[in-house]
Amino acid sequence: MGIVIKQSIQNTITTYLGFVVGAVNALFLYTQFLTPENYGLIGYLLSTANVMMPLFMFGVSNTLVKFFSSYKTKKQQNGFLTLMLFLPLLVIIPIGFIGVLGYQAISGWLSSENEIIKNYTYLIYIIAVAMAYFEIFFAWSKIHYKSAFGNIMKEVFHRVCIFILLFALHYKLLTVDQFIIAVAIVYVIRMLIMKFYAFSLRIPKLDFNFNFNVSSVLKYSFLIIIAGSVAMFMLDLDKFMLGKLIVIDNIAYYNVAIFVATVIAVPSRAMHQITYPLTAKYLNENDKVSLVNLYKKSSLNLIIVSGIIFTLVIVNINDLYALLNPEYSKALYVVIIISIVKLLDNLLGINNSIIFNSNYYRIILFFGVLIILVAVLLNYLLIPIYNINGAAIATFLAMFLYGSLKLWYVNKKFKMHPFSVYTFYTLLLILLLSLAFYFWDFGFHSIINIIIKSTVVVALYGFIVYRFNLSEDITTILNKLLKQ
C-alpha cells in the first residue's frame, strides 16, 4: 500500500484544497452573486454535460487503464494509444453534426420547463467534449502512475478560475452571459493543459497498424460506455430531471446540498486515482493475493477516513445552513440522504475497479441499464411528490441497489469481500457519534458551535481509531505524525 498511501494522501490534500475553494464558490459566492435562477442554470448546464460526457469519452479512460499494462512492446502501445486518441471522435463528430441540424428542436425540448436554458444549450456540447478529453488525458497520466498533477487540474484548477470569474461578475467586469460562456471556456483550457502534461509523460507516436486484438478493445470500450455512464448519470441525472420537472431555482438549492455531501467522497476519489491502475495490473498478472489485500485495505481505510468526514457533516449541518440564505435550508435533508450514499460508496473500496478491469465487465451492461431505468422511474415518481427530497431518495435507493449488486457479483466470481470485524466497529463508531452530536446544541453562534463540535468529534474519533488500532495503515501514519 506504500505508493497507494503516498499518492492518496497527495491527492486527498489537493482534492480538499479544491473543495475549500469550491465550498466558497458554491455556498457563498454563487448564492450571493447570482440569482437562484442563474445559479440553477449553471448547475443544469454542467450536470447535463456530465451526463453526456461518458458517451463522448467512448469508455476510453477505463480502456486505457485496463489494457495498457498488458501490452509489452512499444509498437503495440503506440498503436493502442493512437486508437484511444481517435476513438471518441466516432461519437463526438456525428453528435455534433446532429446537434447543428436539430439545434432548435433540441434546445426547445431541453428548455420546455425553463426558457432560460434555450440560449445556452450549445455550451452543453462544448463542455461535454472538454470534460471527455480531459478524462482521457488524465487516464494517460495515470497509466504512468502519475496522478498528482491531474488531480490538481481535476479538483482545483477550474474552481479557482470560477472563483476569479465570480468576483469579475460581482464587480461588473463581466455580464451574466459572459460569465456563463467563460465557465465553458475554463473547461476547454483545463483540457488543453492536461493534454500538454499527458504528452510530456509520453509523446504519442501515431501508428494506425494495430497489431493487437482491436475487437476486444472496441467491445470493452463500447460496453464501458454504459458502465461509465451509470456513475455520471447517478451524479447528475437527478439535477437534469429536476430541471425538466420543477422550477430551475430548486437546482441551486440541490447543488449546495450535493456539494456539501460530496466532500465525503473525496478520500475515495483520491485513492482511486492510483488504485485503479494497480487493480488492472494485479488482474492482468493474476495476482490474487495482492488484489484481496488491496480490496480489504482500501475499504477499511476509506470507511475510517470518510467516516469522520461524514460525522462532521451530519453533526454540523444545522449550523452550516444557519450561515446561508434561509431558502437553501430546503435541502437540509438532501445533505443527510446523499451523505449516506457517499459513505456506503466508500465502504465498497475498489469494487468498481475489480469489475471494470476483469473479464466480467460485461455484467455492468446489465447492472447499468437496470439502475438507470430504476433511477429515472424513481425520479419521475418521487420528484413531483417530494420535490428535491424526492430526487435525493431516488438517488439513494438506486445507488444502494447498484452497490449491493456489484458487491454480490464480486463475491460470487472472486470469492472475496472487503469487510472485516473492524468494518463493523467503524460503522458503529460513526453511528454513535453522529446521533450523539447531531442533537447536541451548544447554544453559541453557528461558527463557534461548528468549531467546538468538530474539535470534540475529531478528538474522540481519532482516539478510538488509534487506541483500538482499527487500521494498521492509519495507525502507522498517526505514529509518524506523533513522532514529528
From TrEMBL:
One MF annotation (Gene Ontology) recorded for this entry: isomerase activity
- Classify the protein's membrane topology as the record does: Multi-pass membrane protein
Q: Where in the cell is it found?
A: Cell membrane
Keywords of this entry: Cell membrane, Isomerase, Membrane, Transmembrane, Transmembrane helix
Instruction: Answer whether the UniProt record assigns the keyword Membrane to this protein.
Output: yes
Parts of the chain that traverse the membrane: 12-33, 39-60, 80-102, 122-140, 156-173, 179-197, 217-235, 241-266, 300-324, 330-348, 360-382, 388-409, 421-440, 446-466
- Quote the cellular component terms of the Gene Ontology held in the record: plasma membrane
Q: InterPro entries under this entry?
A: Poly_Biosynth_Transport, Polysacc_synth
* Pfam annotation, one family: Polysacc_synt
Q: What's the protein name?
A: Sugar isomerase
> Native species of this protein?
Lacinutrix venerupis
Upper lineage: Bacteria, Pseudomonadati, Bacteroidota, Flavobacteriia, Flavobacteriales
